[in-house]
Amino acid sequence: MNKDSHIAPPAARASFWNDPKIRAVFYQAILLIAVFYSGWYLFNNTTENLERQGIASGFGFLETTAGFGIITHLIPYSEESTYGRAFLVSLLNTLILSFMGIVAATILGVIIGIARLSKNWLVAKLASVYIEIFRNIPLLLQIFFWYFAVLRALPAPRGSVNLFDGMFLNNRGLYTPSPVFGEGFSLVTWAIILAFVAVYFLVKWAHKRQELTGQQFHTVYVSIGILIGLPLLALIITGFPISWDVPELKGFNFVGGMVIIPEFMALWFALSIYTASFIAEIVRAGIQSVSHGQTEAAYALGIKPSITMRLVILPQALRVIVPPLSSQYLNLTKNSSLAAAIAYPELVSVFAGTVLNQTGQAVEIILITMGVYLAISLLISMFMNWYNAKIAIVER
Amino acid sequence: MKKFTSTVMLTSALVLAAGQANAATLDDVKAKGFLQCGVSQGLPGFSNFDDKGNWSGVDVDVCRAVSSAIFGNANQVKYTPLSAKERFTALQSGEIDVLSRNTTWTATRDTALGLNFTGVNYYDGQGFMVRKDLGVKKASELSGAAVCTNSGTTTELNVSDYFRSNGMDYKLVAFEKADEVVAAYDAGRCDVYTTDQSGLYAQRIKLKDPSAHIVLPDVISKEPLGPVVRQGDDQWFNLVKWSLFCMVDAEEMGISSKNVASKMSSSNPGVKRLLGKEGNFGKNLGVSNSWCGDIVKNVGNYGESFARNLSVAPLNIKRGKNALWSEGGLQYAPPIR
Q1: What is the pLDDT of residues B289-308, one digit of tens each?
Q2: What is d(CA A62, CA A181) in angstroms, rounded to the nearest whole number?
Q3: Is B164 touching A (CB cutoff 8 A)?
């Protein structure tokens, strides 16, 4: 803009509608008005349509009693709870599924990505076969495959597989004993928190010492010792205030304990196995983007291959890996909505499904649902951007 | 994401639909030359399609009846298969003209969704199906059972009410599509499959070994199933309502698709009114006066439709509550006069 005004001599200044500055402001104002008008029009039209058709509107339904059961809930929920509560339950189910899926997909993806570059022919080929199979079959089919594979492979409750003491596996889920915390357990909780804080400072101190003196410290062993030792000590002091609620077969099904339902297992397998195949390719590309000279230089210095990978290659590869990895995390989270197909009670199934149908308030419910996915995705993006900035090359 | 997307698209149709929903549906249907009818994704006896894509069933016959009343021809209907979740949004947004999809008439649906039920074409009640080898004889023995059902249906709420009010424990597993419920029940995911009793008989055919399952005698709810239209278009509401009444009245007067030609010369004033020889009932509905005669000729009366779709093997559903009022049932239509 400066350049333009520089070219035009001030005496022969064009009339103001030919001034690029004013034009730019004018066009932007027009665009802004258009956007606001469309938004206002949509809102107005919708409320008018709903009112004329006699369809209930507003968010008051969130306070109404839901009246239906949800098979698995992380927070207390019963039929007497409200639709708002059902929303929270389903949101948590979506979050736990996405979180577990992201963790498993990352671990599996990194292992397979590295395996694909292995010098061992068989390992490399197996990794390739895995990637080509799972990335090229639609996810919905994989979900159905795992669901019915899990259901058909497992016995009915009366023929449950007894894994360990009090742990049962059947086609209704995996039943495990659940801990019941007695009096004095808060001390143990504090001990666990204290142990984590201690480990954090230990790692910091060890790094500093290594930078200053070059001496290494057995951080891993000491950390494990602290993490197990402190809570154990607290348990001994308080006299083991934990009892176990062991599931037992009563009538049709097991009663008591905790249960992981087969829908969750099937989705977890399908989502993490599917996404892992993409992550594996991202990891392979990232590793290959690091110049081979780096590896040769590390070997020339006598560094072991495993440490070369961990301390030389991966940190540089991460810069290439992290941005596309964020997209995979977003995909996995959004794909979790496919759970509606196999009765896992997540957001789309419960809230945009059952609740929508019972209340008929499609506009409000779809708006909330879309808002929630947008918020989750933006949060994941924010975290990944922060991580990306942290590992980016620090230019001096 | 696919399922979610379809819901989102229907909802955005609701947002964007600019004042067309209140227009006279009858004029729209006449102008486009066919009736768009929302049906199930395949429920034998109610709305189901054969290998050639031809739809049949008692719910489909309602659509065919409305088409006959308007066009004098039962085949000017296009069908939209809908899941339980999608059905009301599809109707609200104007995607379909009438919803005839084994839908229970409830207060919420009639008052808060901007919809009107036009009558009851099947009186149903919710029941349970279990495996024979469980040895269960009645519903009160089902405490602790895992129950498979469709999400977004009245059955989902009824089953919660039933188990709660009887102090029984249960695990509800709710699927979106009926076929998914059947597959999961067949794979052993649940002890019990619950839906309307007619639905249980219909879905039992799809199981690997239908004879290994029984439908318990208990009925835990009232499920009056009927066609639905949008609220605020009384002319259209009347037409769909009376198309169904016409079929019931025809059965009561003994007029069927076989004898309708000979009944045309009947001197019975009731028959004359029904067949449009007397009075202006068709004109008042906005269609030709031969509307009811066309329905009986093309689709048959209520009893014929029931016999053709539900009383045949493998469903073999008896008339029961759906017999005419004069024969001890509940099917009762106001007179055409």
Answers
A1: 999 999 999 999 999 999 99
A2: 33
A3: yes
**Cβ–Cβ below 8 Å for A353 and B89:** no
Smallest CA–CA distance, residue B64 to chain A, in Å, is 26
Task: State the nearest Cα–Cα gap between A322 and chain B, in angstroms.
Answer: 25
Q: A153 to chain B, minimum CA–CA distance in Å?
A: 10
Q: Which two tokens mark A57?
A: 């509107």
Q: Kindly state the average pLDDT of the residues A228-245.
A: 85
Q: Between A12 and B153, whose confidence is greater?
A: B153
Contact B152 A354 (CB under 8 A): yes
Contact B152 A356 (CB under 8 A): yes
- Are the beta carbons of B173 and A343 separated by less than 8 Å? yes
pLDDT digits (tens, 9 = 90+) for B19-45: 444 568 999 999 999 999 999 998 999
Q: Do A362 and B11 touch (CB under 8 A)?
A: yes
Cβ partners under 8 Å of residue A86, min gap 6? A66, A68, A70, A77, A350, A351, A354, A355
Decide: residue B156, CB within 10 A, 0-12 exposed, 13-18 middle, 19+ buried: buried
Facing A152 at nearest CB: one of B10, B187, B232 = B187
How confident is the model over A47-91, as pLDDT tens digits?
A: 888 887 778 788 889 999 988 889 888 899 988 899 999 999 999
Contact A262 B191 (CB under 8 A): no
**Among the listed residues B192, B255, B197, the one whose alpha carbon sits nearest the alpha carbon of residue B225:** B197
Q: What percent of chain A has pLDDT over 90?
A: 51
CB atoms within 10 A of CB B101: 29
Looking at residue B19, its pLDDT comes to: 46
Nearest to B146 among A253, A360, A369 (CB): A253
Closest CA to A271 of A98, A107, A132: A98
The interface residues of chain B toward chain A in range 185-244, judged by CB-CB distance below 8 A, are 187-189, 191, 230-232
Show Cβ contacts of residue A134 under 8 Å, excluding neighbours closer than 6 positions: A142, A273, A274, A276, A277
| Domains contained in chain B, CATH given | 2-123+225-319 (3.40.190.10), 126-221 (3.40.190.10)
**Cα(B76)–Cα(B67) distance, integer angstroms:** 6
CA of residue A349 relative to chain centroid, distance: 18
Residues A356, A39 contacting (CB under 8 angstroms):
no
- CA distance linking residue B229 with residue A130, whole number of Å: 51
Q: Which two tokens stand for residue A168?
A: 């049962």
pLDDT per residue as tens digits for the range A65-76: 988 889 888 899
Torsions phi, psi of A29, nearest 5? -65, -45
Nearest beta carbon to residue A49 from set B14, B85, B113: B14
pLDDT computed for residue A6 by the predictor:
56
Is residue A73 within 8 A of residue A262, CB to CB? The reply is: no
Q: How far is A266 from chain B (nearest CA, A)?
A: 13
Of B183, B137, B32, whose CA–CA distance to B94 is shortest?
B32
Checking if the pLDDT of A1 tops 50, the result is no
Is some CB atom of chain A closer than 8 A to the CB atom of B168?
no
Please list the ranges in chain B whose pLDDT falls under 50: 1, 18-21
| Angle separating helix axes B2-16 and A362-391, nearest 10 degrees | 120
Query: Of the candidates A148, A354, A370, which has its C-beta nearest B151's C-beta?
Result: A354
